[in-house]
Amino acid sequence: MTDASVSPIRRNAPETPTPKGPAVTLRRPTGDDGATIWTLARDSGKLDLNSPYAYMMMGHFFPETCVLAELDGEPVGSVVGFAPPARPNALFVWQVTTTERVRGQGLASRMIEHLLWNAPLKGQARWLEATVTPSNEPSARLFQGIARRHGVTCEVAPLFEESAFPPPAEADSGFEAEHLFRVGPLRQAKAA
């Protein structure tokens, strides 16, 4: 593979405003931010809601691969992710959410780009991964858009079929299949 076949990761500093919107600051969450991230997920009305404890654990143990976005001191978005141990050159995005106040202003992409540069991967990420349900068209567009901006592919493959989840009667909810979106290969950023 040649350098021309991969795309550079762009650095977006936390204090840089989103091009179409207000100045939003990005920061690493802590365990204490778990309730805030849980509230953002709940209020989105679109995400599978995990326990508050799960978000506390992510903020405590994986703060370098998660981000909390704030506007005027108010939380307006988050990304919860991790670097899979078997693929240390990948960033796996578990959940992304933005509030109505900032939706459609590019904040979700900005948060993900921020993590690609600032996470433990420090610009060395070659792959961006996430799972997306077939009905979640906004998330599919998000990851496909990142792939387009980087000039790389966004491969989509089945990962978890509906039958892998607990039956709706047991889980108090139905679940859709989850498809793996894999964006890359991204060019490694040069040391600043």
TrEMBL record:
Gene3D superfamilies: 3.40.630.30. It is an enzyme of class 2 (transferase). Pathway: Amine and polyamine biosynthesis; ectoine biosynthesis; L-ectoine from L-aspartate 4-semialdehyde: step 2/3. Residues 1-32 are annotated as: Disordered. Signal peptide: none annotated. InterPro entries: Acyl_CoA_acyltransferase (IPR016181), Ectoine_EctA (IPR012772), GNAT_dom (IPR000182). Pfam families: Acetyltransf_1. Its EC number is 2.3.1.178. One of its GO terms (biological process) is ectoine biosynthetic process. Residues 24-192 form the N-acetyltransferase domain. The keyword Endoplasmic reticulum does not apply. One of its GO terms (molecular function) is diaminobutyrate acetyltransferase activity. This is L-2,4-diaminobutyric acid acetyltransferase. The gene is ectA.
